[in-house]
Amino acid sequence: MGQGETKRRYDDACGLAHALDLIGERWSMLILRELAYGSRRFSEIKADLPGISANVLTQRLAELERRGLVVRRKLPPPASVQVYEATPWALEAATVIGQLGRWAARSPQHDPTLPLSHAAIMMSLETMIDAGRAGDLSGTFEFSFGDIVYTGVLGDGRFAVTRAPSPGSDVRIAATPHALAGVIYNGAPIDLISVEGDVALAKRFFTLFPLPAKAY
User: Fold this and answer.
1) Has this prediction a pTM greater than 0.90?
2) Is residue 10 part of a domain?
3) pLDDT of 3 over the 60 cut
4) pLDDT band at residue 113, thresholds of 50, 70 and 90?
5) Which helix or strand (DSSP H or E) is residue 144 part of?
6) Same domain for 57 and 20
7) What is the Cα–Cα distance from 94 to 122, expressed in whole angstroms?
8) CATH number of the domain to which 146 belongs
9) Where a domain ends, among 52, 74, 97?
10) Residue 51, SS3?
11) Is residue 1 in a domain?
């Protein structure tokens, strides 16, 4: 732990215990989720974590920075603003965080109708894809959430996401994260979102993400 941190240590040699020392504090994993696809401004992170206060977010970012999981840098002009980025080491935890989300989705208390951020829905799609359903289906999908654009590449039963536009993509989707989650996970009608390009491929794509059976 860095100087000035008050978090209690587990004092346990197990790597899992140390992982909790590093990212087990409330909000820490959600902050890393928000940084999983690229740099974000403080205001952007806070906007996508509506339950966190500015003071707590400042504290968590400082802790993650001291632990080597987050770095700050200043964008070049004309932006000249400070952004936060996950370090390569921190990004190794993204898969674990996604799988933890998949595990928790089996809880009867999990409510898939609650709001979520664009980073959250994209990580969910990477994690929840059913390789058996996907089979040999392939394609490139562009997702626009206002000014934020992601590309997802489907192939070999996997779905890989980057935060970047994809000129010439097979399917172009514009939506809010909540509306997209509603179509994919809750059976909401497709006309709640905008779909351009290969609509038939998009409709097949939306069936590839079944929620896991509840644990009890």
Assistant:
1) yes
2) no
3) no
4) confident
5) strand 139-145
6) yes
7) 12
8) 3.30.1050.10
9) 97
10) coil
11) no
Q: What is the extent of the structural domain holding 175?
A: 111-205
Residue 59 falls within a domain, yes or no? yes
Number of domains in the chain: 2
What span, in angstroms and rounded, lies between the C-alpha atoms of 200 and 114? Answer: 28
For position 41, what pLDDT does the model report? Answer: 97
Residues 115 and 84 grouped into a single domain: no
Specify whether 134 is located in the same domain as 198: yes
φ, ψ at 26 (rounded to 5°) = -55, 135
Dig out the tokens for 169 from the structure: 């993509």
Asked if 154 and 72 sit in the same domain, the reply is no
* Phi, psi torsion values for 8, nearest 5 degrees: -75, 135
At position 26, the amino acid (one-letter code) is R
Distances (CA, A) of 160 to 32, 125, 155, 202: 18, 9, 9, 16
How far apart are the C-alpha atoms of 216 and 115, rounded to whole Å? 24
Considering the chain, what percentage of its residues have pLDDT values greater than 70? 97
CA distance 23 to 124: 19
Give pLDDT tens digits for 137-186.
Answer: 999 999 999 999 999 999 999 999 999 999 999 999 999 999 999 999 99
Distance (Å, whole) CA 124 – CA 181: 9
